[in-house]
Fold:
Amino acid sequence: MKKIILSIICLSLYSFGFTQNDSTYTFKITNDIQATSVKSQGSTGTCWSFSTASFLESELIRINKGNIDLSEMFVVRNVYKAKAQNYVQRQGKANFSQGSLAHDLLNAVYEHGAIPELAYKGKSYDGEKHQHSELFSLLKAFVDAVIKNRSGQLNTQWIEAFEGVLNAYLGSAPETFTFQGQSYTPKSFAKDFMQFERDNYIHLTSFNNLPLYQSNILNIPDNFSNGQFYNLPLNEFQEVLDYALSQGFTAVWDCDVSEKSFNRKEGVAIIPEKPWSEKSQLERKNTGVLVETELEISEEFRMSEFLNQNTTDDHLMHITGTAKDQYDTPYYIVKNSWGDKIGKSGYLYASESYFQLKSISYTLHKNAIPKNIRKKLGI
Structure:
């Protein structure tokens, strides 16, 4: 009897081991567009700045400007100021948080310019990582106090005082700096060195409750500046991204990473066909580890998941290429901003199903859009 039980155990272990070895995700890169090194946003809600700065860094590589590390915090401080002014003007009836979207960085570069990381690190406190918990608590309390001011008149000196808090935590931003032997202001660096043109960048989304091929305001919390997004049907939404990547362009991706099948440790994001509630404990543990069949995503299901808030805009990352698993299933290569110890050296592989269901929007260069779709959009 013991021999029989032992044989069954050995057979089970062999079968499990064989299945695991045979089905563990193995990726082959099919298109790898050059990007700068992986950074960490630390304990901040500034993924939007890190992802969009990384996107612009790849743009600089694409136009032969070299591998340049841009200061994320120079943009963050300017967006904090823009949010504060908007919040006060609306008497607190607006979003004031650490989160923003890709167009906010592009707007900030347009209005204030950009600075290399070497010239402005944006951190005057101790420690290696960015930490904005205390800073943001002070900023929020500050703008709330301005709104509650009962003197009968709003003193515009509050803006200078608000910037004083930013200077204390992030350091004062330089008015001029030297880069590669040349002297620049932030604005001249963006214009003359980066050759930055805000109108070159387009924001795309795909929701069937919005007019197709028209520019719409997305009603999501982080869109405090009322950014405009062109709406495409889901198939064209993905078609544009695939075309852009094939032509050497990258994209900033706004998506939901709260899905249980988003495996941070393994760096794999999928939408399993089998519902999470029906999975065993072992199946849940192996989600993102062992290859499994994924759900086919319809526009209707995508829309319902957004409306019931199962899909929210909780994270932005940088899509830099494509890959396939051992069964020839395509994935997107995504650069994250959680440091190089998370996922696959700071990157992750997101399946097409995950992209179709959990995307809010993405941003890319207008030349990355196929001509037939650009014609439909009127751009």
